[in-house]
UniProtKB/TrEMBL annotation:
Known catalytic reactions: Couples ATP hydrolysis with the unwinding of duplex DNA by translocating in the 3'-5' direction
Family classification: Belongs to the helicase family. RecQ subfamily.
Enzyme class: isomerase
Protein name listed in UniProt: DNA 3'-5' helicase
Keyword Acetylation (UniProt): no
Superkingdom: Eukaryota
Length: 925
């Protein structure tokens, strides 16, 4: 395949670029869904005409690669915005001038449509959303959630701010921000003022002082008072709660006494006493006491509490009472660090992460073994490590036995959740019991549908009677939604209106990062630059005198943690979604960043159809076909030998391109092959498998005479430019040692000055346990499973989009648009969704066909006749999404990139399949 070909001749198009298309017949009436699995048949047709304004298209390549577009000026005069009202109108799509109904027309977009600037803003003279709640609560209203805030909260932002992506950026490659739960958002100190505080000490747990993570700039932290604020040069202010040293001794004594009391009798009275002694709180919040009692009774528990409702306390209290270690499994290092920081001073904590140096990890393990760590945070990948597991396979009498395993973000266990992680599949109850000898498991999440809960509880063997579930959205969050065709302008207006204007801290969630090309210093190359939407928006806000900082996964960890620290402890009063979330789970989790101290907070969501279409396409970016799964399986088992002790490896990048499969998808398949009904393989920790080695002291032959490893290296290496290049597992297998042992041996030789070497090519490593007897049925099974996951993601997005459309519609109907009405509607909708209500209305606004689709595919195939395509690869290109074998940096240059984003992905795949059959006769896959 020629990736360098810039011109594919695809400027010749069957689609008349700017002519209006014939109308499609109206959509059939909606059908109620049956289950998320049968997405295609369960989605309801739109009863609304969803429209959007078509901008003058740009078909020039150069238009596509313009730098970040600035928002267009508002064409119409500003309407007065009454205080407390939305500064613009919430409207149904049909309010837009010159509507083009997606239901009836516009099956294709002119080339480059999505690369044009944003549609211009138009104001509508319709009733506006009134932000005055019926009961007129103040923004400083007291907590509404159960229980009191006692000493106030120290824990505010932190963790799992979901992986977001981008908004309506111009076409060249649409790309989700690197998936990370740390989030991509703009954080604001709306008032932008600076305050200087001095403070007396930092809150630390007894272990944390050793960690590099807790070093803080002395310039910014000085000690004086118990509660202070940090302030950086740009005026972002964050409050930190600090613990007075004088308080410690008496507190420790009362904690000891309270722990003994609970150990002798797990009564409510004793637990409240312990709560007071450790945290200073007077009351448990809803669900906490019940969960703690259940865990202390040794019962595995499923806990579903909203974000910020106080889940951490539900394992921290048992951790001090139970005799052994509490292992907390978290999906992200940032999350672990944050949770470790939040441990009360009397709970000794530690963490093990891949980002630690060997000395730091060894020190933590030493402390674990001597029993001086009570709470240990680990990633699920750690469970692949036999050495780690062996530490805990000890009798209950030793200091390092595990009393409790906490699975945080437990929804990651389920493939039907919004954030499935294959490594979480490893946390099945049978493995935890067998390897860790643990009886009690606590699974915690803030967002899970009934289906997700069922799959978590079945994997972790938690009885249905041990489910503690409270409302998914706290009632101190006021929710509103508006459709916007110029989100930047609308957001600015929103922020400059009440009550947003009064808020000190605002989070703006963004979705995408996009690649923009820019002329490089040398004129010969075009460079692609990753630009995060958060950067664009924060720059725009700063230009408009609002102090804002960008925070996204593409930033340096150091910069990120500085911004996080500065903002973290602030009481976030406003959450703005600049882009549609991918699911109601994601929405709920993100709005949960607001009002964590229980005070009233406002959450506004902007949505638009363009973002919806882009996201809908992206939901198909992980999908794979039977053909690819079959090729993948053949490769995985290609190395089968009679000896099952041999280690096989699959270089991630190469395999990903070869099978056109994302790395996470390959890992999902491999994990299924290990943990599915039949165990076909045993996964090992990932390794860099390609070694490039130089000899320095002794000649290679002489060294090989006395060293069998070196002899094997000489035998199995290729010599490239005088260097020995070999595969670590291959050499290790040939001398019957583990790859890790060979690596250690190489390190010794290096220390003696004999060799230098470099390792590259991260690879999945595994041992084959059993070769499948029937590749075809296994292929079919795995493909079906992945397809169900793909459909589930699409359904979740449709449910999110429909909720936004219906919330706007609800407002429209009342002509009064009070934010309370939207809040009530969204709360009900969210609870129906999480309950798994089968009557949930879900719009299906995707077109099913276009008269030009087949003809365009034909032209595309003709102009790329030297390239092999699958129907899915063609559909991805027509939807403007890159894949490992057809990267967006190359394929976004085609004229057809993203042209059929509004036609259902499967319909495009079917058309591509038919055209491929015509084009290559019987050879189409
Ligand atoms: N009983 C209580 N009384 C007062 N404040 C509490 C109580 N329990 C917890 N909190 C405070 O509530 C805040 C949020 O708690 P926590 O971080 O445990 O929430 P969470 O449910 O784990 O949130 P997330 O879903 O983001 O992980 C913390 O500041 C915590 O100290």
């Amino acid at each position: 395949m020629d990736y360098d070909s810039d011109s594919d001749g695809s400027h010749i198009s069957a689609t008349p670029p700017r002519d209006p298309l014939p109308r499609r017949p109206p959509q059939p009436p909606p059908k109620p869904p049956t289950s998320y699995k049968s997405t295609a048949s369960t989605k309801r047709s739109s009863h609304l005409d969803i429209i959007f304004k078509l901008k003058k298209p740009s078909s020039s390549k150069h238009d596509k690669i313009e730098p970040v577009p600035e928002p267009e000026p508002i064409q119409q005069p500003d309407l007065p915005s009454p205080v407390g009202n939305f500064p613009f109108q919430i409207r149904r799509p049909s309010d837009q001038p010159h509507p083009i109904s997606i239901g009836r027309s516009l099956e294709t977009l002119p080339a480059g449509f999505f690369s044009t600037r944003r549609a211009s803003f138009s104001k509508i003279c319709k009733p506006s959303l009134n932000f005055e709640p019926e009961t007129s609560p103040e923004i400083t209203a007291e907590p509404k959630i159960n229980g009191s805030d006692g000493l106030g909260s120290t824990k505010t932002c932190n963790k799992k701010l979901p992986n977001l992506i981008r908004g309506d950026a111009p076409l060249p490659p649409v790309k989700l921000q690197k998936r990370s739960e740390e989030g991509n958002f703009v954080r604001l100190n709306f008032n932008g003022y600076k305050r200087k505080f001095t403070a007396k000490g930092k809150k630390m747990n007894s272990y944390s002082y050793k960690s590099k993570y807790f070093k803080r700039s002395k310039r910014r932290v000085k000690s004086e008072v118990d509660t202070g604020s940090l302030c950086d040069e740009e005026g972002l202010v964050s409050e930190i709660k600090l613990q007075s040293k004088a308080e410690k001794p008496s507190r420790c004594e009362s904690v000891e006494a309270a722990i003994s009391a609970v150990r002798s009798a797990v009564s409510e009275e004793n637990l409240v006493r312990l709560l007071k002694a450790i945290y200073g709180y007077d009351l448990f919040r809803d669900g906490q006491l019940e969960a703690i009692k259940m865990i202390l009774a040794g019962k595995s528990t499923m806990l579903v509490l909203p974000t910020g409702a106080g889940k951490s306390l539900c394992y921290q209290i048992p951790a001090v009472v139970l005799p052994g270690i509490t292992l907390v499994v978290s999906p992200l290092v940032a999350l672990m660090i944050d949770q470790l920081k939040q441990l009360p001073p009397m709970i000794q904590g530690g963490l093990l992460s891949s980002s630690q140096g060997p000395e730091e990890a060894a020190e933590t393990l030493r402390m674990v073994q001597e029993g001086s760590i009570k709470v240990l945070f680990v990633s699920p990948e750690r469970f692949l490590n036999a050495d780690f597991l062996s530490i805990f396979s000890t009798p209950n009498s030793t200091p390092n036995f595990v009393s409790l395993v906490v699975v945080d973000e437990a929804h990651c266990v389920s493939e039907w959740s919004h954030n499935f992680r294959p490594s979480y599949m490893r946390l099945g109850a049978s493995l935890l019991r067998a390897k860790l000898n643990v009886e009690c498991i606590l699974a915690m999440t803030a967002t899970a549908t009934t289906t997700t809960l069922q799959s978590i509880m079945s994997a972790l063997e938690i009885s249905s009677t041990n489910l503690i579930q409270k409302a998914q959205v706290r009632d101190n969050l006021w929710l509103s939604v508006s459709l916007s065709s110029n989100r930047m302008k609308d957001m600015l207006k929103l922020m400059k209106s009440s009550p947003f204007l009064e808020a000190q801290s605002i989070i703006v969630y963004c979705k995408f990062q996009s690649m923009y090309s820019s002329q490089a210093i040398s004129n010969f190359y075009l460079h692609w630059i990753l630009q995060s939407e958060t950067d664009v928006i924060s720059r725009y806000l700063c230009d408009n005198n609002i102090s804002a900082k960008s925070y996204h996964s593409g930033m340096l960890a150091r910069d990120r943690s500085r911004i996080q620290e500065l903002f973290c402890a602030n009481k976030i009063r406003v959450v703005i979604h600049y882009s549609l979330p991918e699911s109601l789970e994601e929405y709920v989790q993100e709005i949960g960043r607001g009002g964590r101290d229980g005070r009233l907070s406002y959450c506004h969501l902007f949505f638009d159809d363009v973002t919806y279409y882009k996201l809908r396409s992206l939901m198909h970016s992980d999908g794979v076909d039977e053909f690819a799964v079959n090729k993948f399986l053949c490769q995985v088992f290609a190395d089968d030998t009679s000896s099952h002790s041999k280690v096989c490896s699959l270089v991630k990048e190469l395999a990903s391109r070869k099978f056109d499969m994302k790395e996470e998808v390959m890992l999902t398949l491999l994990t299924h092959l290990e943990l599915g009904e039949t165990q076909y393989l045993h996964l090992l920790p990932q390794l860099n498998v390609t070694c490039t080695l130089n000899f320095h002291k002794t000649s290679p032959m002489l060294l090989a005479d006395k060293d069998t490893a070196v002899a094997a290296i000489l035998k199995k290496s290729e010599i490239k430019q005088g260097q020995y290049v070999f595969n670590i597992p291959t050499v290790a297998n040939s001398i019957g040692v583990a790859p890790g042992d060979l690596s250690n041996h190489l390190q010794n030789l290096k220390a003696k000055g004999e060799i230098t070497y470099e390792l590259k090519d991260p690879a999945y490593c595994y041992k084959i346990v059993k070769v499948p007897s029937d590749f075809c049925s296994l292929t079919e099974l795995l493909t079906r499973w992945l397809l169900d996951i793909e459909n589930c993601k699409v359904w979740k997005l449709d449910a999110m989009y429909s909720s936004a459309v219906f919330a706007v519609d609800t407002c429209e109907k009342t002509h009064d648009c009070n934010v309370a009405q939207q809040t009530t509607y969204l709360q009900e909708r969210i609870s129906d969704y999480f309950r798994g209500d089968n009557n949930l209305d879900v719009l299906d606004k995707m077109g099913q066909n276009s008269p030009f689709l087949r003809a365009d595919i034909k032209v595309f195939l003709q102009s790329n006749s030297n390239v092999k395509f699958t129907p899915r690869a063609i559909a991805r290109i027509m939807h403007g999404i890159g894949s490992p074998a057809y990267p967006s940096s190359i394929w976004s240059r085609t004229h057809f990139w993203g042209r059929y984003i509004q036609i259902d992905f499967k319909a495009v795949m079917n058309a591509a399949k038919a055209e491929l059959m015509n084009f290559v006769g019987k050879d189409a896959p």
